[in-house]
Amino acid sequence: MRPARYVGDASYRHRTKGHPRPLDQVKVAVRQLDFSLRFLTEFAREPLRVGALLPSSQALARVMVGSCEIDSGSLVVELGPGTGSFTGPLLERVRRHRARLLAVEINPTHVNILRERYPRCEVVEDSAENLPRCLGGRQAGCVVSGLPWGAMLAPLQDRIMRAVLDSLRPEGQFVAFAYAHARWFPTARRFHARLQEAFKRVETTPVVWWNLPPAYLYRCWRA
């Protein structure tokens, strides 16, 4: 039997009779540790821009990607993918729907990691506030955000939100996460209010406790 290939991450593991081999498990674990350490290093250098000590968990990634509405042939945008916690599962979903994924990341170290892990993903090194320019006139059906909205000052929040709205097609969806412990921080409350103003429908999910720190999602739809 041919070994199966996990197509999301370039560091796929081979399986024999449905089970990964021990050596492959070790290799994957070492690579994941390397990505996490590099993520932590970038947080130490630019804490406000990175926004978190560690990459998002698989549990949060499952809820995030499962919350996305992806139409056949549509364009999906991921803002602030970091080292790719959501990118792999998103790639799997967009391929099933014959859609496309564009990742926009401002940190050059993270850009290199993304291109190494996901060579089939289109990765653009730029700020999320320049999203319309990155799309070159295209419109997205879904924008997925891994950005630290609760750590942004008001002017940056407004610029990026304007870019998202200008890039979403009518009825398009915006999905973002926020940390539960920061729900009542002034910047987080402002972000919540901004979403209520900008979108016709806004939903929140239950808290995903298997994340550090625990987080919940906003699911929003344009008019």
Detailed description of the structure:
Strand 6, helix 7 and strand 7 form a beta-alpha-beta unit. The protein contains eight helices and nine strands. It is α/β, with parallel strands linked by helices and 223 residues long. The chain has one domain (50-221): Vaccinia Virus protein VP39 (Rossmann fold), CATH 3.40.50.150. Residues 1-17, 25-30, 35-44 and 47-53 have low confidence and may be disordered. The strands form two sheets. Strands 5-4-3-6-7-9-8 form a seven-stranded mixed sheet, sandwiched between helices.
The portion of residues forming beta strands comes to 15-25%
Count every helix, treating DSSP H or I runs of 4 or more residues as helices: 8
Helix share bin: 25-40%
Return the CATH topology: Rossmann fold
Q: Specify the CATH homologous superfamily.
A: Vaccinia Virus protein VP39
Assembly type: single chain
Structural class designation: alpha/beta
Most strands sheet: 7 strands, mixed
Q: What is the overall pLDDT average? A: 83
Cα-based radius of gyration, to the nearest Å: 17 Å
Shape: globular
Spans of 5+ residues with little confidence (pLDDT < 50)?
1-17, 25-30, 35-44, 47-53
* Overall number of domains: 1
The CATH architecture can be named as: 3-Layer(aba) Sandwich
Number of strands: 9
Cα end-to-end separation: 50 Å
The CATH class is identified as Alpha Beta
Main β-sheet, spatial strand arrangement: 5-4-3-6-7-9-8
Task: Spell the H/E element sequence.
Answer: EEHHHEHEHEHEHEHEE
